[in-house]
Amino acid sequence: MQIPDLPPLKLKKDQERRLRTGHCWIYSNEVDVEATPLKGLEPGAGVNLLSHQGRWLGSGYVNPHALLCARLVSRDPAHPLGRSLLVHRLKIALGLRERLFKAPCYRLVFGESDGLPGLVVDRYGDLAVVQIATAGMERIRDDVLAAVDKVLRPAGILLRNDNPVRSLEELALYVDEAAGVVPTRAEVREGEARFEVDPRHGQKTGWFFDQADNRGRMLRYASGRRVLDVCSYVGGWAIRALAGGAAEAWCVDASETALAGALYNATLNGLSERMRTLKGDAFEALRRLREERERFDLIVIDPPAFIKRRKDIKEGTLAYRRLNQLALQLLEKDGVLVTSSCSFHMSREGLLELVSQAGRHTDRSLQLLEAGQQGPDHPVHPAIPETAYLKTFYLRALATF
């Protein structure tokens, strides 16, 4: 076997077990630094990953400055990370999305799940928005952009490298129009609704593609109902509900820019007369609505991740419970609560339990009607549990049995 001509990175005894199951992460405390010192490697450099016995496990890249210090990218010695491999895996990713979606609006690359750790590519028609999160992908940025251009032939490519996660790899934050013409607004269509988002300044890359299927699932509960969309961003849930026949929808968000976007999108769909907005912290806004005796038939709770690290679990769990409890206090009898968590460290069972606790505290009996996860353009890697992050529950709230 002719392995790539790359520096070796040897693991300590028995530390290759996770890699053998299909995972691709290596932590610095798993490396045999006496045999292969991390300090001698440049951030982003390619490496051959070796077992403690010296057996070749695959090739990938390293960052000696990060706790998660290396990622395995290829288990084929003939195809290390480079432009050719990037093109190949982009084509494989594109094949799935073209099979699933009529319009070219989706997440094309979802990092590890698509065999490209540290890389996200979102597609908005003729616009590709690329996010690079690791030193290894940053080091071959030109190859990444060339591969995206070859596979998609987009009119424009935008680099949204302003995600704070880059700081963990000691990478600079920046936004760059990498190629072609990048529009100020990008269009997304979901069902009967049309949205325009800001790819340069919006959250993530401008849109949350991962909730698309869950927003569609919500429609069966929305017709004729009064809807509250909490942490609404630019109105994805609310506008889908209105387009599906909801009588009225409120958007709650702390960002005035986001709420302006929600109103813009409501107007775009001819729905602005049935849309209302409320600016403020989600917790304070829900308390204010309760004081004003507002009630809703369908409430959507889709907050940002309250638990980003293990040390946030206690405080974040409390925040999820408080938010769901406040929502249940605003829900009409026989109303429906749609609640989500995008925190990997909040398990499905944990989320359901804390919502159940919120129900008991508010004297509501809950029935779980449906459960959802991220859409198939965010595929879950069975060997990498970190790729399964999104949980969404649809619960009917009744008076206590």
Describe the structure in brief.
27% of the residues lie in helices and 29% in strands. The protein has 401 residues and is α/β, with parallel strands linked by helices.
Uncertain segments = none
- Tell me the CATH architecture of the largest domain: 3-Layer(aba) Sandwich
Question: Which structural class is indicated by helix and strand composition?
Answer: alpha/beta
CATH class value of the largest domain: Alpha Beta
Total of domains? 3
CATH superfamily annotation of the largest domain: Vaccinia Virus protein VP39
Q: What is Rg?
A: 23 Å
Instruction: Count the E strands.
Output: 19
Shape: globular
The CATH topology of the largest domain corresponds to: Rossmann fold
- Helical content stands at 25-40%
Largest sheet: 7 strands, mixed
Characteristics:
alpha/beta, Archaeosine Trna-guanine Transglycosylase, Chain: A, domain 4, Transcription Regulator spoIIAA, Rossmann fold, 3 domains, 7-stranded mixed β-sheet, globular
Structure description:
- The protein has helices spanning 17-20, 83-100, 135-139, 141-152, 212-218, 236-243, 256-268, 282-291, 313-330, 348-361, and strands spanning 8-10, 25-27, 46-50, 56-62, 68-74, 105-110, 119-124, 127-132, 156-161, 174-180, 186-190, 193-197, 226-230, 248-253, 275-279, 296-301, 331-341, 364-372, 391-399.
- The protein is α/β, with parallel strands linked by helices and 401 residues long.
- The protein has a seven-stranded mixed sheet with strand order 15-14-13-16-17-19-18, sandwiched between helices.
- The longest helix has 18 residues, at 83-100.
- The radius of gyration is 23 Å and the shape is globular.
